[in-house]
Amino acid sequence: MGKFSLGNKRPLIIAGPCSAETKEQTIETAMQLARSGRVDVIRAGVWKPRTQPGTFEGIGEPGLQWLCEVKQATGLPIAVEVANRSHVELALKYGVDLLWIGARTTVSPFAVQEIAESLHDNHDVAILIKNPMTPDIDLWSGAVNRLINEGVPRENIGLIHRGFSYFGHSKYRNPPMWHMIFEMRSRFPDMVMICDPSHICGCRPLLYGIAQQAADLCYDGLIIESHICPDKAWSDASQQVTPDDCISMIDNVMWRAKTTEDPEFTSELNVCRQKIDQIDSELFELLSERMRTSDKIGEIKKASNVAILQSNRWDEICRRMLSMTREMGLSEEFVSSILETIHMESISRQNEIMNK
Ligand code: PEP
Ligand code: MN
Q: Which CATH number fits domain 6-252: 3.20.20.70, 2.60.450.10, 3.30.1330.40, 3.30.200.20?
């Protein structure tokens, strides 16, 4: 098999168990996935960074041997997670084609630096960097820059969006926070971006929706956890799917072209874009006028020495706008968040006026 290159195929589909557990489970899962012809790379973790001690922390080196057998039997490239120099050295010794840095490792500059340095003599291997656990784009892009600074060619580096750890209630295990990804994409526009619905969702029913959304947002591929017997998996059981379910999900995802030269498409799009530009200008002119009006209110309150926050008035604004916008097809969540942002800005301007 020739050298594996990122970016050769879109969508790039990576699938396999969260962890290599036994030789039979690893090989059987991979064989079933490979037989479909829909999977490009087989994944399996052999070193598992677990939240709790005493849970399964990975099979270690024997798992690399099983993955070698997977590669021979299926002809597909293999991928594992690495978190330090010795992982990198062992993975390369066993001919692993694609490495990835896990979310718990991306948060650690020492670990990322060690991995970057251990790749110094192996610039050929492709490596994917998962987003850090926390929604911190600088930390993620810092990890990319550490690899680049050690001489890893940009085309051998890719990104995985696996969602962000979140303190609070969410239907996702790691909410996707798509806007974070838009920022990362504008920092590294040519870098392959893969979506990891398994770790975003943490459960099976939501997987397809996230995979389709990634396809709609022009991602370059997916990494999905699959296990011959998901309920019995030793890690991440609730999000793993059988190879059959994995394949039918992949088959159902509709991928969109990155762009098109079609003149009708371009001219229709341009009309809408001009309209959007015009609306945005008007929106911000109005917002500026609103702020100037609220400055005036600040002066009036100051003159009479009245407190800035008038809860009744704020409640009245929310009630009025929510009932008005309901008929406009705007969601309550959207309207509330905009009102809150406007209100915070007004308060901070009035605060400045009061204390001038
Ligand atoms: C994994 O891919 O199995 C894994 C540990 O993922 P993450 O680093 O995204 O938690
Ligand atoms: Mn996992």
A: 3.20.20.70
